[in-house]
Amino acid sequence: MDNLETYAKERFELNRQKQTLKEQQQQRLTVTYNGGLFRVDMTLLNYLYMKNANAGLFNQSTKCIIPDSYDTPVEVDCVELVQLCEQRWNEVHNDWYNEYQELKTKRKAGDVSV
Amino acid sequence: MSLSKGVVILYSESAQLDYKRLSDICARLAEKHLDVPASIIEIEPIQRNFRTFRYPNGELEGTEWNNIGRYSAYEISPYDETILLDCDYIVQSDTLANYFGSDHDFICHNSSWDVTGNNVFRHDKYMTQNWFEMRWATVVYFKKNEHSKRIFDAWKMVYENYAYYAELFGFSKSPFRNDFAMSVAHQICNGYANTATFDYALPALSSSDSVIDYANGRWLLKYEYKQSHNVVRYTGDLHVMNKRSLLKVSDQLCE
C-alpha cells in the first residue's frame, strides 16, 4: 500500500518540464565575437540577415558596429557573425526539439530516465 | 602575449561531507567542458561557520561551512583569467568558456534559477528589506587587474567588519555569508549599478530537492510540490545545494 501511495504521489509535469527545457537551452544561446558577448535571438539574426542582404543587393559593407549583450559597442563582420550565430542557434534548437519529442508523451515519474 | 586561463576551486575539510571528493569531480568536469586547467586549493578555515540545511525528508542538519576565505582567491589563483567555482557547481557545458577573453573584469550572477520550477530562490533577489540586490559567489569570473583587486579587497574588508555592514545595510550578521559580503563589495565597486553580472541566471537545485540519477550529461531531479514528489529532467550546468545527493551520483559523474 505504501508503495502504491508513493507511486501515486510521484508525478511528471510536462508543463514544468517544458519551462525547464526552455531555460536550459536559452542559457546556451551565447556566442563570443571580437571580445563581445552576443545573445543569439531572432532580433540579432534578423539584423544580420538584413545587413548581409543589403550588402549583396546594394553593395553595402558587411562591417558594422553593434552593441553586445553588455552594451559594449563591438565592430563585427556580419557574414562571420551570422555563421557563428546560426551554428549555435541550430545546435541549441535541435537539442531542444529532440528532448521535447522524447519527453512529450511521458506522464509518470517512472517513465522518465536519464 | 596570451593570458593564462583556468578554473579555481577552493575548499576546506569537513567531518560531515567529503568536500575533497566534490572538488575533484567539479575540477574534472570543468576541465572537460571548458578546456582549461583546474586547480583545487585547500584553504585553512579562518573561523568555523555553521548553516542549517533542510533535506527532502524534512530532516534538518547543521553543517560546518568553511568557505570564508574565498576573498583570497585573487591572491591564490595562478591564472590571469580565472573562473572561481564552488565545489558543488557542476559544469556540463561550454557556456562559461565564452567569458574568457571578454572585456569584463569581474562578473558574477545576480539571480538564481530553480531548475525544478518551484522558484524557491525568489526571495534571494534582494538581501535586505530595502531592496539591496544580491549577488551569488558560486561562480565568479575575474581578470587579474586593478578593478578586480579592488573588489576582492572590499570583499575582505566586508568580512572583517561584517557586523557593521550587516547593521548598515540591514541583513543578519550571523551566520557569515560569502554571497552577502561579495554583494556589498561588488555593489560598492560598481557604483551600486546593476552591471557586471552574467547574462543568465545561476541554475540551481535547492537543498530540499535531490539528484536521483545522472548519465551522459542528463540529470534526473526530484522535487517536492504540494506534498507530492515530482521529477524533472535537466541538462546543463547545475549548482547542487543538496551535496549529499550529489555525492551519491559521484561515480556516474566521473564516468
Give a description of the structure.
- The complex is a heterodimer of chains A (114) and B (255).
- Chain A has four helices and five strands; from the N terminus they run H-E-H-E-E-H-E-E-H.
- Chain A is an alpha+beta fold and 114 residues long.
- Chain A has a two-stranded antiparallel ribbon with strand order 2-3.
- Chain A has helices at 2-9, 14-26, 42-58, 78-103; strands at residues 10-12, 30-33, 36-39, 63-67, 73-77.
- Chain A has a domain at 30-107.
- Chain B has one domain: Spore Coat Polysaccharide Biosynthesis Protein SpsA, Chain A (Alpha-Beta Complex), CATH 3.90.550.
- Chain B is globular.
- Chain B has a five-stranded mixed beta sheet, with helices on both faces. In chain B, strands 6-14-10-8 form a four-stranded mixed beta sheet. Chain B has a three-stranded antiparallel beta sheet with strand order 11-12-13.
- With 255 residues, chain B is of the alpha/beta class.
- In chain B, 26% of the residues lie in helices and 29% in strands.
- Chain A binds chain B through residues 6, 9-13, 16-17, 19-20, 23-24, 26-28, 30-32, 35-37, 39, 69-70, 72, 95, 99, 103, 109, 112-114, and chain B through 93, 95, 98-99, 101-104, 113, 115-117, 195, 199-201, 203, 213-216, 218-220, 227-237.
What do the pLDDT scores of chain B average to? 90
Radius of gyration of chain A: 21 Å
Secondary structure category of chain A: alpha+beta
Helix share, percent of chain A: 55-70%
**How many helices of chain B in DSSP terms?**
7
Q: Look at the structure and give the CATH class of chain B.
A: Alpha Beta
Summarize model confidence as the mean pLDDT of chain A: 89
Uncertain spans of chain B, ≥5 residues at pLDDT below 50? none
